[in-house]
Write a structure and sequence with these properties.
5-stranded antiparallel sheet; alpha+beta; 2 helices; 34% strand; 5-stranded mixed sheet; 149 residues
């Protein structure tokens, strides 16, 4: 078999072997999986759903920033910037802030569905950074955010 170049689109449970956006040579191939040499320098079979064939640009989160002051709102707007300069946004809150939000007596309607809401343990930068990185590495960042023009 000629080696086929594949690009990792998400890492799933293969964080020890894959890097999102990384290029790998498929040294073998079956119908539903590639055998690649992973970051750990071992050959491993991984389902094809983790890859795009060829050298593909994968937008990777490079930075984020609060758009609101933490003291002003329960749901905080955040802008995310990717390595290809794309910008997206989402709302971030904690369980406590969400509870506080629903304590408002004038809340109408009394519930909502926000697909771009991320709930973190605390509003400290480390917790947010780790959560956003995890969502990005697992290829879910576009589902969890909205495109920002």
């Amino acid at each position: 078999m000629d080696f086929k170049l594949v690009t990792c689109t998400h890492i799933g449970v293969y964080g020890h072997a894959l890097t999102r956006g990384g290029f790998y040579q498929a040294v073998d191939e079956e119908t539903d999986r590639f055998r690649i040499i992973g970051n750990h320098h071992k050959r491993v079979w991984i389902d094809k759903c983790y890859f795009s064939e060829g050298e593909v640009e994968v937008p990777i989160l490079s930075s984020w920033k609060f758009d609101d002051r933490l003291e002003d709102f329960d749901l905080i707007e955040v802008t995310l910037t990717f390595n290809n300069r794309m910008k997206r946004w989402c709302l971030i809150t904690t369980p406590e802030r969400l509870f506080k939000h629903f304590e408002q007596s004038h809340l109408d309607p009394p519930g909502f569905n926000i697909q771009h809401l991320i709930i973190v343990r605390t509003m400290n930068n480390e917790d947010i950074e780790q959560t956003l990185k995890h969502i990005d590495e697992h290829g879910e960042i576009e589902k969890a955010t909205l495109f920002l023009e």
